[in-house]
Amino acid sequence: MSGKKEVDNKDKFYYLTVVFDERYKSKKFHYLSNDLTISAGDYVIVDSFGDNKVVKVIKAAFYTKTTAPYPYHLTKQIISKADKLEPIAKEENSPPIPIPKLEPFDYAEWYAQLEAEEDIDKMPKAIQQLAKSWSCKFFPPTDYSKSNNPSPYYLKHANITFKYKGKWYRFTPSAFGTNDDIFVAVSEYGLEQALQKLGAEKVNLSSQID
After folding, report:
1. Domain spans of the chain, in order of start
2. Closest C-alpha among 45, 70, 72 to residue 56
3. Cα–Cα distance for residue pair 193/189, rounded to 1 Å
4. Are the C-beta atoms of 55 and 28 separated by less than 8 Å?
5. Phi, psi of 141 (to 5 degrees)
6. Tell me, what DSSP letter sits at residue 104?
7. How many Cβ atoms are within 10 Å of 176's Cβ, its own excluded?
8. Bridge-based pairing state of the strands 43-48 and 51-63
9. What angle do CA 27, 44, 59 make, to 5 degrees?
10. Per-residue pLDDT tens for 51-109?
């Protein structure tokens, strides 16, 4: 590992045994040092997974490669001696994370969406005409069974909820004489877009897996 070098001509190396937290002295770590003035009780700055940490030295001693407490080629050098135990300030302060402004929840709008009109005959003429033009696209589910369903699940509670001229409406499979699976499959191929083109807002196709 780069940054390590021998400290004398006798092929010995100055190892520092350190702890990151004095409450857990059993968790010891080893670093190399070229500063022979560092001894037990001193504090040093070391690299720990890319972050600089101030740690306490609990032992300092010379070792050879064969007697070292940790493999020499894997041991990091300390960065420097520290005057005292204190957090290291980052070179650049990260900008604060902006907190998004949350709009107040509109309970009236939420309730109106829940109570959306589902009777096509009570919807505006333009919506009725659109529904009529699409009704022929929903093939009758006369022989629709688990055996010919490509999915291992059935869909349920399928619907398209949308807002048109200030009022909420909902298309359901029963209104088109079909089931949930076919309703979703056909609706995904243009019904949502057709509603938006007509002027509908907040068009949302949803369903649940049974």
Report:
1. 13-82, 107-209
2. 45
3. 8
4. no
5. -85, 50
6. P
7. 21
8. antiparallel
9. 50
10. 888 889 999 999 998 888 888 888 899 999 987 655 544 445 556 656 666 667 788 88
